[in-house]
Amino acid sequence: MTEQTTSPAPVLPPMPDTPPPVPEPLAAPVKRDRRVLRAVLRWTAAVAVFAAVGSATAYGLTRVERTDVPGLATLTDGRWNYPALTAAPLPSGSPGPFAEENKAGAHYADPRDLLLPAPEGAEADKALRGKDGWLATDVYLKEYREEFDRDELRQMLVDEGLRHIAARGWTTPDGTHTRIYLLHFDTAAVVDELQSLHIAPFTKAAYPVRGTDESVPDEDFPVKAQLDDLVYSVYTEPEPYGAEQVRQAYLGAGDVLAVVVQSRKGGAPAVPFQQTVALQSRLLA
């Protein structure tokens, strides 16, 4: 086999101390074909909640202790201390997932390199390590509460050509349990349809995860913490939520559907969840 060369992994630029002003709205650019499909699939209501307003800037996120993440609260509100983030290396000459020439929205980087690292002081979830970094589909499906749903999802993932699942999980000292799954498919069109029509429509998550009785759209998730190229479906478990509360997000990022789940007894704080979703988004872009 011919050895594949990789470009050096650039360090993502730090976010400025003061966010730049939002520019005056410009004429909307012509969208790529998969954006047209996305627009057709998603409800108008979903756009109202999850789309970025105007031409919001996608800020580079590195060390979280440097300054505020746009749309999130201040450093003293319980955010976690993540290591510095670096972009995953790309094979030489390969475009990024949202480059104009990349019509399939393909991530040419190894999905295992796109996972958010655990924050400082967290204990790794060994059950999500998988074999050689690839997680078995049945392990991922254990996130869902009902056996019927697990069976239906298993067949759906097979039918849609799921290639790999990369995963990482951890528990922080306060008891918050985080799980991140990157489901890798062939094209962005497959991810758009799965997310919008089958798994994560606007009104509620189609398949309840374990530990929840109900999940509703999280309308408090900050728009400025979202990137324009990704599609967000974010849910929270409303009160009363029993022993623990569960928050979850589905991120459509080209040919990858990312699933972020956080749970904690007594209530899952909003800020660490928002922070985790924002940083994982940055690695997928």
Structure keywords:
285 residues, alpha+beta, seven-stranded antiparallel sheet, 6 helices, disordered N terminus
Q: What is the CA-atom radius of gyration, in angstroms? A: 18 Å
Rounded mean pLDDT is 81
- Biggest beta sheet attributes: 7 strands, antiparallel
Strand content: 15-25%
Question: In whole angstroms, how far apart are the ends?
Answer: 29 Å
Shape: globular
Number of strands: 7
SSE arrangement, N to C: HHEHHEEHEEEEH
- Order of strands, main sheet, comes to 1-2-3-7-6-5-4
> Low-confidence parts, pLDDT < 50 over ≥5 residues?
1-68
What is the helical fraction, as a range of percent?
Answer: 10-25%
Q: Please count the helical segments.
A: 6
Structure class? alpha+beta
Structure notes:
Helices cover 21% and strands 16% of the residues. It has helices at residues 33-41, 44-50, 137-141, 147-159, 188-199, 270-284; strands at 123-124, 164-171, 177-184, 216-217, 231-236, 244-253, 256-265. The protein has a 7-stranded antiparallel beta sheet, with helices on both faces. The protein has 6 helices and 7 strands. By secondary structure, the protein is of the alpha+beta class. It is globular.
